[in-house]
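Box 3.1 A note on notation
Throughout this textbook, protein chains are presented in two layers. The first layer is the amino acid sequence; the second is a token string describing backbone geometry. Keep the layers aligned when reading.
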Amino acid sequence: MSPNKIKILPPELQNQIAAGEVVERPASVVKELIENSLDARATRIIVKLEAGGQRLIQVQDNGHGIAAQDLPLALTRHATSKLFSLNDLQAIKSFGFRGEALPSIASVSHLTISSITGKQKEGHFVEVMFGRIIDQGPAAIASGTTVRVENLLANVPARLKFLKKQTTEHKKCTDIFCRFALAYLNTDFELFSGPRSLLRFFAGQSLADRLQQIWPGQITAGLKPFELKTDGLHIFGLAGSPDTAQARAERIYFYVNNRPVTDKLLLSALRQAYKGTLLSREFPQAVLFIDLPPDEVDVNVHPAKAEVRFKDEQFIFSQVTRAVGQIFTTRIATAPLSESHQPTSTSPLKDNTYTRLPMPEIKFDLSNNTPPQPDPEHEHSPPPELPAQNYVHELTPLRYAAKSPEQPLYLGQIDKTYLLLKIKNQFMILDQHAVHERILYEQNKKRGFKGVKKNLVIPLELILHPAEQKALISYWPKLESLGFVLEQVTSRRTIVKAIPQDLSPGQAKDFLQTLLSREIDTLDEIWILMACRAAIKAGQELTDDEALGLINSWLTCPNKDYCPHGRPVAIVLEGRLLEKMFKRK
């Protein structure tokens, strides 16, 4: 059998193959046509949809238009007014540049394009049916360009059946529409579904104003601005509170030189900025813009230009993390005890299973109201990061009372797990395990590998799997620096003769077994694991002195709103919420 001869594909087949890359669904058409309108410097863009875009997509703009003699050429592959040389390709400033969108769309739909330029007295139209021009001539159009796309994918039923329900396709079209509206605040955007106007963004609105129209109020209320300028790079936008994190990344929008993109590097950098405030399965809300020189980014790496490639990825990653990290200022407005009110002694926890709190704790003199004096052991400790306020806790039969309504009031422990405070007209509930985790984590980071060890009267014995023994050998130097003293007896049996001072024998064994059974790559993960194993657990009863000592140390911690795993440490219940719950308002 002789091999087939090489032939050039007919134009119709070329366009359908290109359409397979450019026209994935109705939202792809909306994206390409809005991009053309923006490249034409339109200041008003109207999008109309019917049947989720399958029956009709119409995009109308007031841009500079297309001359009558150029309209048929605009429907030819690789015909463009935006790119002329290799240098242009290396520094792209427009959305479209390959000349594939219009002919690709026209090959799988019934397309009509009408346009007029400022120099023309009348407009012109070209009508295309599945890739073939069927009519053209004068058109009644006031300004700019209007593109009607009807019966999308009707001639390729094999692809049509892969579309979702009309409501799903409509939602995807709306999402694309909104993404562009958020990037071009000086452009008027309006979206219609049939005859009904669904969304209208007026020119001159702020980013926050437009987000309020498409995102829930509880999310937009927590958005915070960020901005960073450095080395020709400008990063700015709005990012949401970790308290409103969600299970999907559907409210994360990235823009590179105002081009909407999806990028794993940027997503990773964003999550790095939220590290320690989110669980592994949670995502924040964010709208993030990056402006940089066009030759520093390649936008020609994806058929639909949905992805980009940065020249210096490591630099972009670090700067995005740094920029978004600006939103994390302390939000819980409470102040630690001043130095003159530091506690005078420590009190061990009742259950020897748990380590003594490695922090100053409060002791009270019932005979007078004189504030306690500082413990000499803590006289030279660094002052807290937040400015101190002068207030004194007094012991009463039922609670600790504050001298001023501005000062925290400790009310007691709930279910041996939560600590209840009152600040002004708000109630704050603290998770004692998360509080202690945050304290220990910050101490571990500060101390580094300078752990203080304590010898064990009865050594611990570890019987390890070969993989665990291999991991132990790799961690051995770090474990010794933390305060562990280890002795390998056989290939699978190891004796632990000393452990870090903050851990009990049970906690130390648990820490080692967990460490050796996981793939832990960073020091930060080791600090988190140590803090988790050493922290007070839920169900551990605390005396009032111990609870107040815990709270006092927590108040001076950086990033105190979240435990190292990303769980919230505190929940604030405002007085208005209680009034609503009791139907007082």
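The radius of gyration is 32 Å. The chain has three domains: 11-207, 215-327, 330-377+385-585.
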